[in-house]
Amino acid sequence: MKKFKVSLLAVAAIFLGICGSAFTNPGTPDASGKPLDGWFIYNGGDISDPLNYTYSGTVAQCNASVRFCAMKGNQQPSPNQSRPTLESLDAASSASNEFTNQVADLVIFKP
User: Is the dihedral of CA 108, 44, 76, 61 positive or negative?
Assistant: First the structure.
């Protein structure tokens, strides 16, 4: 009977863990915690400067001549909505080892 109680507790713990994770967004690298707005195409130049990115929407259409192509993040408030926030840029840079590694659904490279 004691084994049944332990198993029941384990099942309950797993169930609570799954339910708790259903309400988090593991793909949100921005410190604000809001869902990411979309893709930003890297135009060349200083990779850490938001001015060197252009908002692309929900699809990253890579046509850049550089290896690193695009990152996913949040838009800056008006009037710079076509640029990523510094928080998104920093998070994507950290996750990809300063844009040297591709990260699924966050940082992509031109094939």
Answer: negative
